[in-house]
Design brief:
This protein starts with a helix and ends in a 6-residue tail after the last strand. It is mainly α and 442 residues long. It has 16 helices and two strands. Strands 1-2 form a two-stranded antiparallel ribbon. Helices cover 79% and strands 1% of the residues. The chain has a single domain, classed as MFS general substrate transporter like domains (Growth Hormone, Chain: A, Up-down Bundle). The N terminus and C terminus are likely disordered.
Length: 442
């Protein structure tokens, strides 16, 4: 009986943030957004591969996405701290809808060209530059810091849950003559429209930084960078996240090349292997949500970063499709652990007035992922894709090791403090004059 009560308590804790009505609306809006985005992610790769059949072309698509995200994300962070967050989310969805509809129509009219895929990647990069910082900062406002880890874990659950079926849905529709890639793009746009409906049902949330009107956007970006730089644990976290995602997460860019080029399978199998990653992510999301605010979360984040890199190495060495499927399930779980806990920690270490900009700097890692895709694609053409994947995993593990060593040497509040007393201590950082949040109790 006591075991059942404990299980019920854990389940209740795992979904605690969803008891907040406004957060629940935001969660559903995100769910439909992620269905659309996950479908487009697969469709863009399939279309680029069908038009060119080159790994370098796949990398170029993500390069355009990454360069756009590199510019748009800091500006999105500034806008999140300056303006109504609901408006920022709606604008991002409109961009996603327009790009998917136009590209879908072009495919249906047999007028699609590779440059259109690149333009679509640019538009989605701009949209994500607004969407990411605004959504996470909005979540923090709605649930408070005491449930921040839970809210972020549930947000990633919505994203990863859609990865279980949305890529397979996209692949199935793309391979079905009645729809094809063009029709699948139009289906994806419908989900983004539903997201907009949910967003309009949410309240407006004014800017947290009331002094922003007197500053230029560039000054705001510089202020956000200074805010991170003045907090060594936050600075190390942002830099490590950038490198880990840039090298490690790029394995998803090469799904079409691995599935079709190495294993000789069709479009639908690209969605299936993406589903494998999602299964691992969803499996870890619920237990993670109930523990994401615990004092030991930083140690779990470090374990996730090492598991992420080792999994990418194993993916590059996988001898068959089903072995690769099992490996990406593990990679999906480790990626979710790392993303959830690193984003939670970053917001806990940031002041409320800077959360949008701090989150934008964390999300720059996905700009790095897009930028690195092109040279990695060219490297894959030169030395083979499996070897390139192994090198990507090695780079991820090395970055995780550097972060772990540097944190363990900081006795004032880094990993060493957590291992020593199970908390992140509050108070001013030596030499900075800035205080950081006290620990969040699990």
């Amino acid at each position: 009986m006591f075991s059942r009560l404990r299980d019920r308590g854990a389940q209740s804790a795992a979904f605690a943030s969803l008891r907040n009505d406004d957060y629940r609306k935001l969660w559903w809006a995100g769910l439909y957004t992620f269905i659309s985005v996950q479908m487009q992610f697969v469709l863009r790769g399939l279309l680029a591969w069908d038009l060119t059949e080159r790994e370098g072309a796949l990398g170029l698509v993500y390069l355009c996405f990454g360069l756009t995200l590199l510019v748009a994300t800091p500006l999105g962070g500034v806008a999140t701290d300056r303006f109504d967050k609901r408006t920022m989310l709606v604008v991002s969805q409109v961009g996603i809808v327009i790009s998917s509809v136009l590209l879908g129509v072009a495919v249906l009219l047999d007028a699609a060209a590779f440059w259109m895929v690149l333009v679509s990647a640019v538009v989605q990069g701009m949209s994500f530059g607004l969407f990411g910082p605004a959504r996470v900062a909005f979540s923090a406002h709605l649930v408070g810091r005491e449930q921040l880890g839970n809210a972020i874990a549930l947000s990633l659950l919505s994203m990863n849950g859609t990865r279980v079926f949305a890529p397979s849905l996209a692949g199935a529709l793309a391979g079905w003559a009645l729809f094809g890639i063009g029709g699948a793009y139009l289906v994806a746009s419908v989900f983004s429209v539903v997201s907009v409906v949910y967003l309009f049902a949410m309240p407006r949330f004014p800017a947290a930084d009331t002094s922003a009107a007197s500053r230029s956007p560039i000054e705001d970006i510089i202020d956000g960078v200074r805010h991170v730089n003045d907090r060594p644990p936050l600075r190390r976290l942002v830099l490590a996240s950038f490198c880990i995602i840039m090298f490690g997460f790029n394995y998803v860019s090469f799904y079409p090349a691995v599935v079709e080029g190495i294993y000789g399978l069709g479009d639908a199998w690209v969605g299936i292997i993406s589903t494998g990653s999602a299964i691992g992510a969803v499996a870890v999301s619920v237990p993670l949500a109930s523990r994401a605010d615990s004092p030991r979360s930083r140690s779990a984040m470090v374990i996730g970063s090492f598991g992420f890199g080792l999994g990418v190495i194993a993916f590059g060495l996988a001898p068959s499709f089903w072995v690769a499927f099992a490996v990406v399930a593990v990679v999906g779980a480790m990626t979710t652990v790392y993303q959830t806990l690193s984003n939670t920690l970053a917001l806990q270490l940031a002041d409320e007035s800077h959360q949008g900009r701090v989150q934008s700097l964390m999300q720059l890692s996905f700009a790095g992922f897009g930028i690195a895709a092109a040279p990695l694609g060219l490297l894959a053409e030169a030395i083979s894709l499996p070897v390139t994947l192994v090198l990507m995993g090695v780079a991820t593990v090395v970055t995780a090791a550097i972060y772990t060593v540097s944190e363990s040497r900081d006795p004032s509040g880094g990993l060493a403090a957590e291992l020593g007393n199970g908390s992140v201590s509050g108070g001013p950082r030596p030499g900075t004059g800035h205080s950081v949040p006290s620990k969040v109790q699990g």
